[in-house]
Structures
1.
Amino acid sequence: MDSNPAVVLNLIPTLLGVAVFIIIVLSGLIGFYLHGSGGGIFSSVSEQQQNTTSSWGTNIVSSIISALFLSGISWTYLDLLRGDRDQIDPFKDAFRGFQGKFIGGVILLTLLISILTTLWSLLLVIPGIVKHYSYSQSYFIYYDQIEQTGEKPKILDTITASRRLMDGHKGRLFWLDITFIGWYLLTIPTLGIAYLWVGPYVSATKAAFYNDLQNNLREESI
């Protein structure tokens, strides 16, 4: 597979990620200069609550946009891996998650997974991490259901299917993520620009992981 289309496919979400990072840093600096010297550590409770609410809203919006882009990109690599297509259409494929038949489901999946993971994390950190991996295949499953049946699956059913598919495989994906840490560290000195090359590798690997899970499931059912 030619690497240039893969890099261009990852261009828009990478640039948006860099922009969001810069905005967060700048807003933090502005907030420090506006409130740091005046209120110090004795800032009002209302200001702290406002900052918390704003931060939560920003994180949700960021998560949804990221999920929309990453879903479309990951689905493209899954299609390539399965031989359903033989090339990448970068600017079209980057926005696949925004298509009418997908966008609502991806948004709802992101919101529900975020809520469920947060609730589990309130117990302890470990349960939250476990559930994160349990729900990790939801976007792939949602895509497969629509492409294979033409019908949109229920969001809770999709999450449940991911949980069942990941039964006994969460450790595999965890260690796979560990292997990506070095690659992610390489993106820091470049302010995320290196993710143009790291992103395609990670997305293609995650698509291969899901495809392997599905192949194993089919073999077990024979």
2.
Amino acid sequence: MEFFCYHRDRPGSTALRMELLERHWSYMDQYEKELIARGPTFAPGGDAPSGSVHIVDLPGPAAARAFAFDEPGYQAGVYRDVLLLRWRDMLGRTMWDFPGGRTGGNRYLVLGLGAAGGAADLTVPPGRDDLIAYGPLLSDDATAWLGTAALVRAPDADTARGVLTADGYAGIEVHPWEFGGRR
């Protein structure tokens, strides 16, 4: 089962986050084979981290909760909250298989949280060459659509936002993002 995990940083936690970076990476190394994508998000227009994205394939919701809440940064208070939802990989690849590689161009997390009235963006949009990861956010039993998460290469945040249908969501967040990990 695939899960989308987004740890959002607590304000003022950057120093603690940096202090725990090696412990975080060592923890994630245990999940190397299960990770579909990973990497930090940043505050708009800045270099300060704002969160940490992990898309991971695990046996079930209990394993996903353990993954999210046993993470060293979470345990130490780096994060203010955690979004943890089932996810479905619509591209059938990991970020390391992205034809555009690790560098070059701006990268973004685009997170659309569902609105009442039905699901949106259930098929991969045109322009797949710039999609690093893409899929619906789902309930634990995968029966209810809750939104869509995408990692995308785009010239700017507005273009990245355009990967989702604006009126299909209660809100769309766009965060600068970059490939994470040691690879």
3.
Amino acid sequence: MQEQYRTVAREGVHETEINRSRFICALAPAATEREAQDFVARIRKEHPTATHNCFAYVIGADAAVQKASDDGEPGGTAGVPMLQMLLRRDVRYAVAVVTRYYGGVKLGAGGLIRAYGGAVGEALDALGTVTRRRFRLATVTVDHQRAGKVENDLRATGREVRDVRYGEAVTIEIGLPDSDVEAFRAWLADATSGTAELELGEEAYGDVPTQRDA
């Protein structure tokens, strides 16, 4: 499995003008191919009089699903450079639609490639991306006396604390990179004098926590 990937931070639109043609790039995160297709259909509906509504999307952390459309532009001059820009930026689970309103000046094949790929690149810069890393879901079970310090230490070191539940004992759900499991197990045993339990669950992707200053 892919260790990490980037995706679009939020849905949004960025517009640029090249030789009197308007290029409007709409970007959105998409968890499935169906979501990507629905987004493309929605943007096309919003711009029914546009000259072209070209699209590209990448689904899967390993980019297993890749689709692109030139929507009437010369073959390979729109959808493919859009797709290549997403892949070059390591963007996954994302869809881009570039709507063009023709301004009367032909750009030529090279100009179109630069325009469509550039529109996606500029939109990514404007809207931002987030990095998601593969984690092992894990549950720490610890007594009430030690739970507060364990939770604080987890958060202070940038661990992804997903949930805390209080019962006879305290269970803390965290996201743990596979490479950290053994070191974490040793740290937990030391921090709780061997009284805490660690249970490993399934794998998932989560946002990379913000690094804190030392």
4.
Amino acid sequence: MNAPDHKVRLGFLPEGDDDGLWRIAAYRDAIAQPAWGVCFNTDCPTEFVTAFTTALAKAYEEGPESYLARPLVGSEDRGSFLGVVPLLQRGWVIDRPRWGVFAIDSPDGLAHLEYTTGDLDPEAELTTRDARWHIWAGTSVNHPYWYATASTDTPVSLLAAVTDSIPPRHSSAGRRNATATRPAPTSPRSPHRGHGSPPRSRPAVPPHTAALLPPARASPAGRPAPAPAPAAGRSPPPSGDR
């Protein structure tokens, strides 16, 4: 799906090479490389995708100065810190899980937002999980319940729309929670992010984290499960053809 001027593109890829289901990118020139790109994997809650695309549609109407607004250090409305404010306001805690990575962890430690510092490979940000921003849920960064990534120049207002859509701590009684027994995706992080400890058995999911996890879905008859991501991470970046 393309914007009228082909400078914003959205790809829905249920049969892609990996588990990246939604890939969205913006361009300063319709035939240039993406200015920024985001990816939501197969199990990422639909509410997060909706929050992002809703904010993106509004930014697109405002023009390139909005949907191509690069994060700006020290800016009151474009500083990267604004992307984590909604989570800090809900009691999430700052952490340093690995060298070069800052994290904001949910109170129960099962949902995380990571921000990688330093220089990153622009191509890798668009084609692997080694992006500037990485939101995931689970007990192992290599085997998350779900994840979403965003490259360096993704507007902070769009990131804040996603983090603001993550529900606050509350009881989710009545919401189906079959994910506690569902196998985790097999997409690995690359060594750039670090592997941490070996994957562990999934613990019982607390009620307020269960709201972050999608219900288990039955695969359509005859359709193979998504292929695991290659060692490098994600599939090639979205294009106008997708």
